[in-house]
Amino acid sequence: MSELIRSRRAWLGAHPVVADALVSAFLTVSCLIEAAFQKSYGDLPGKHPDVVCGVLMSVVVMSLTLRRRMPVPVMAFTLAGNVLLTALGYVPTLGAGLACLVALYTVASHRGLGTSLPVGVLALVVYVVSLAVQGRTFWQSVSNTVLFAGAWLIGRSLRLRRAYLDELEARARRLEQAREADSRAARAEERSRIARELHDVVAHHVSVMTVQAGAARRILHRDPESVQDALSTIEQMGRTALGEMRRLVGVLRTEAEPARSELSPQPGVGDVNGLVEQLRETGLQVQLWIEGESRSLSPGVDLAAFRLVQEALTNTLKHAGPQARAWVRIQYADRQLEIEVEDDGRGLVAGLGRPGGGGNGHGLMGMRERVALYGGDLRIGPRSGGGFEVRARFPLEVP
């Protein structure tokens, strides 16, 4: 039963004209019955309600059917109906007065202050004047003025409350949209970070594996022991790459998936020695200098510095040539961390500086993004005397 009532209320709310028509019809019938059985209107002068009065009153009250669609015209129509009844000499009728109050309430609740206030004042003046013409007393006029003011105030307060609720709903929608936009931006940033990590991991380890596989193929028949060492290095690099990829893919898993145990700490500057040793096993001659007093770095800067060295040495391995040498210098200064990676190979000729080459690829782009993220400076370009160089500076917080 309650569900049926709620559904009917919802339907009437979606069809306001039907709801207003039903209310108007009920008020009309009530006023006609009251006027038919009313034997006397006291000592007030004027004609008692008759058929003409009943018809006029019915038309005035039924005009409330359109009150929400045309509040001001309905207000004017009800006032005109009251003036006409007064001009015809009828005593005041309950239906016509009630129609004026409802129409005034509707104007105040559906129109702004610039419209509802002057309309309300004009309606009050016209109605009070009509009461005076009908011979009403001063206190009767005052009581009707209070009724008009009350109807206007109730309509105005309802409009303000509705506007307040609408603003709350709009603000909630804006906050929801902003939260969704922030969530999308966070997901996009996380995807970009994971893409950079995957590129760094895959590019480095696959490059080492490719070089080792090529060397093993060339000496397969001449030096089987060296081939075994190369295959061992390839296996180790493959396992390391799989572990790194498994760790990164684990970030994308839900909490319900048991991937937490597979996660390992992110690499940092302290792991550069191991990185250099891996590359030396491929035949690349790499020298490493760490200068200054080592200090604890923020996790982001620590990872960015390691990835920068890794990407620079990977590019050297891929593009510098078989006889190239590389130098890595990491210096801890008072307020910054300086990183220099140089080689004497032919990286620029091999494609790093040409459009479509590695210079515009994901690796160097990832370097720029990582350094810029922490407010650092990056210089990538040809080295004086031949080769290629990468120089970066990360600002450090002073304790």
TrEMBL record:
The chain crosses the membrane at residues 115-132, 138-155. This is histidine kinase. It catalyses: ATP + protein L-histidine = ADP + protein N-phospho-L-histidine. It is an enzyme of class 2 (transferase). InterPro entries: DUF7134 (IPR055558), HATPase_C_sf (IPR036890), HATPase_dom (IPR003594), His_kinase_dom (IPR005467), Sensor_HK_TwoCompSys (IPR050482), Sig_transdc_His_kin_sub3_dim/P (IPR011712). CDD domains: HATPase_UhpB-NarQ-NarX-like. Keywords: ATP-binding, Coiled coil, Kinase, Membrane, Nucleotide-binding, Phosphoprotein, Transferase, Transmembrane, Transmembrane helix, Two-component regulatory system. Residues 307-398 form the Histidine kinase domain. The lineage of its organism: Bacteria, Bacillati, Actinomycetota, Actinomycetes, Streptosporangiales. Residues 158-185 form a coiled coil. SMART domains: HATPase_c (SM00387). Its EC number is 2.7.13.3. One of its GO terms (molecular function) is protein dimerization activity. GO terms for cellular component: membrane.
